[in-house]
Amino acid sequence: MSDGKLVGIVLVSHSAEVATSVAELAKGLAGGATAVPVAAAGGTEGGGLGTSAELISAAAASVDRGVGVAVLTDLGSAVLTVKALLAEGDDLPDGARLVDAPFVEGAVAAVVTAATGADLEAVEAAAAEAYSYRKV
């Protein structure tokens, strides 16, 4: 458990609209979870489809409360961009981590878990566990 500070969550999508909508969905399904710092980093600076290292870095900085940042991504280049930022070492906050989880279900699980004050490892585990959610 943290000392009242909550793990930050960044949702990286190729689309600004998708990232923002998933952030709103996750917070809504987590009972509002208004205290959880969640940021969407979707699309490019010009509003097009793609990923932006600058938008991801800014989003991560905006949600960093000093107890870790869970970064969830949608597809290919979003993953590669986050991996590159982590490898560079100074573009994301200390304690930022790429989480291997399904984008929508993982985001909901991450926000719900972060809202309890859980640490980064628990937030990551909850998001990753969403891979096992069965629909049929």
Short description:
By secondary structure, this protein is of the alpha/beta class. The protein contains five helices and four strands.
Task: Please give a structural write-up.
This protein has 5 helices and 4 strands. Helix 1 (16-29) links the parallel strand 1 and strand 2. It has helices at 16-29, 53-63, 76-88, 103-115, 120-129; strands at 8-13, 38-42, 69-73, 96-98. Helices cover 45% and strands 14% of the residues. The protein is of the alpha/beta class. Helix 1 (16-29) crosses helix 4 (103-115) and helix 4 packs antiparallel against helix 5.
Keywords:
single chain; 136 residues; alpha/beta; four-stranded parallel β-sheet; 4 strands
Approximate strand percentage:
5-15%
Counting DSSP E segments of at least 2 residues, the number of strands comes to 4
Q: Outline the low-pLDDT stretches.
A: none
- What's the mean pLDDT score? 93
